[in-house]
């Protein structure tokens, strides 16, 4: 009876041990592939995927913080006594921002075409100041007209100067925050110019405002065509076309449409650089790997702008395509990107806030700037899921005021070639506790399941050893082996007796 029970026990140990050993070992080998497959199924953009609803209407709160540069020494400038422009930063004026993807078209080549509708709502409780605050700065209409006329003949420029002075006493403008941003500022020069046929440049609006007619607009950001990741998961979220083209106005590689819009990323696995396509500046930004970070208990990698952003080819030759082929005075020192072609000919230039990482010549002409590293453009991602952990998209909008012979209303600044900061913004968002908890659960599955499988495999090995041990003991006690031993003993006894 004992022998039979040992046989049953041995069989059970060997059977379950083999099952656990094989299952555990196989799952240890294939678990990363299984996890990645499930992750792809959830993240690929499809009408029924988990990521689609989050991407279509971002549920995570986003805020746009705007800081204006108020010029505080206008009288000194006009009297010719100022050595520099003095600015006082005002704000932040905080707006809650929401994004909704509309007019979706699913294409056969694993891409999705859509428009991005954005809304902004002022948050007075989060702001420093009111949207009724007055801001004094350069009049963008005068600066733009002077910039557009800079290469014309002197008699025409003098005539334009007389025309501008009919409606403006000088080149400065004071208006409240909401007018500078969304409501727009009326200007008689615009009204008249809109009725002049055959102008060599486009006048897109009847008012000037940095966000005029943009709140809730379907068309302002243009159409996007992005990769759904269905055919190639590594391309998930990458912009294939913007405004139905795969190039912008910049030449060579600078004109390529590429990178993510910042909302959707494939797992990056620690690559050294990321590209973020920014439709506001008609190109992409390259962010370099900066450092490891931890956000709400989740490990990630932070990417940030460095001195290669807006370099214009001075330190990084591949950035020279942001200037014309002939590098003349139109190609400015490193740190400011010319987006005039992207902004209807206005002398608009983009930089990092307070000219961070830019050539010192820019900040040397402005009193009141203090660049710090926390003003940098930053993005933190969890590497295995591609989940954005935190985003601080920070840029500064500037107007180039360059003296133009004949247009005296424009030629009053202390320096003949000044990059005047108008405002800077920070578009900030971070993962919520709910989404952080979801990410932690997914990551626990990825990291902890293999340890569980190792334990399972070890239990299988232990059961196999136990089963083999019981089997050996059973064989040692088996009655089938007894006669053989007894017979050998009898033969030995008979031999000794004879």
From TrEMBL:
Cellular component, GO annotation: cytoplasm; plasma membrane
Transmembrane regions: 12-34, 448-472
Disulfide bonds: 254-321, 282-342, 323-331
Gene Ontology terms for molecular function: scavenger receptor activity
Localization of this protein: Cell membrane
Keywords assigned by UniProt, alphabetized: Cell membrane, Disulfide bond, Glycoprotein, Membrane, Receptor, Transmembrane, Transmembrane helix
Pfam families, alphabetized: CD36
Topology class, membrane: Multi-pass membrane protein
Family according to the record: Belongs to the CD36 family.
Protein's UniProt name: Uncharacterized protein
Taxon lineage: Eukaryota, Metazoa, Ecdysozoa, Arthropoda, Hexapoda
